[in-house]
TrEMBL record:
CDD domains: LuxR_C_like, REC_NarL-like. The modification 4-aspartylphosphate is found at D54. GO terms for biological process: phosphorelay signal transduction system; regulation of DNA-templated transcription. It comes from Cellulomonas chitinilytica. Residues 148-213 form the HTH luxR-type domain. This is DNA-binding response regulator. GO terms for molecular function: DNA binding. Keywords: DNA-binding, Phosphoprotein, Transcription, Transcription regulation. It holds the Pfam family GerE. Residues 3-120 form the Response regulatory domain. SUPFAM superfamilies: C-terminal effector domain of the bipartite response regulators, CheY-like.
Length: 219
């Protein structure tokens, strides 16, 4: 069962989300929070697999709660941000803070459940190509960058090549064609890159690549 925590300041929204989640055979709701501080506490107490996190909540908002929950916890609960506001700065802040995905609240129930399953297994629900656009627009505007070029020393030359192409939004098949490799070989490289750099998924790999200078905005 996928353990889901609901974080939204509106009780009616939480009730609707609970109904959707609990109608799925492979999910259960393990808690509800009405603000970011409560969500942070429940994330530690209830051990959810996925947190559905609203952005705008009183006190500690969803973006700050995401940062607190994900900080230093690569294997901790995955955060799927839900909001009524389709704003690039929210998306970028959420992804940089450690969120695994971003959906609008008018998303269909079936798509929401699919997204929960995707992030529960460690993947992201935002395409790397979309992440690239967001990062190019916002990198350097959200405070000090946490990564430096020194972080790349753990990678082989081939792994650096693959990471750069991932950062440019290419799929495994496209990378395989560009580097004359099999798709399986590329998948293996990507897995090793994520493990070496302690990154959660391809979306985090895109952000890392820009923040450490491997790829430059507009290049």
């Amino acid at each position: 069962m996928i353990r889901v925590l609901l974080a939204d300041d509106q009780a009616l929204i939480r009730a609707g989300l609970r109904m959707i989640v609990e109608n799925a055979d492979d999910m259960e709701v393990v808690g509800e929070a009405s603000d970011g501080a409560e969500a942070t506490a429940l994330a530690a107490a209830a051990s959810p697999d996925v947190i559905l996190m609203d952005v705008r909540m009183p006190g500690v908002d969803g973006l700050e709660a995401t940062r607190r929950i994900r900080d230093g916890r690569p294997d901790g609960p995955r955060v799927l941000v839900l909001t009524t506001f389709d704003l690039d700065e929210y998306v970028y802040s959420a992804l940089r803070g450690g969120a695994s995905g971003f959906l609008l609240k008018d998303t269909l129930a079936t798509d929401l459940l699919s997204a929960i399953r995707v992030v529960a297994r460690g993947d992201a629900v935002v395409a790397p190509a979309v992440t690239r656009r967001l990062v190019e627009r916002h990198v350097g505007t959200s405070g000090p960058l946490p990564r430096t070029e020194a972080d790349l020393r753990a990678l082989t030359e081939r792994e650096r090549e693959v990471l750069e192409l991932v950062a440019r939004g290419l799929s495994n098949a496209e990378i395989a064609g560009r580097l004359f490799l099999t798709e399986g070989t590329v998948k293996g490289h990507v897995s090793r890159i994520l493990a070496k750099l302690d990154l959660r998924d391809r979306v985090q790999a895109v952000i890392f690549s820009y923040e450490c200078g491997l790829v430059r905005a507009g290049a």
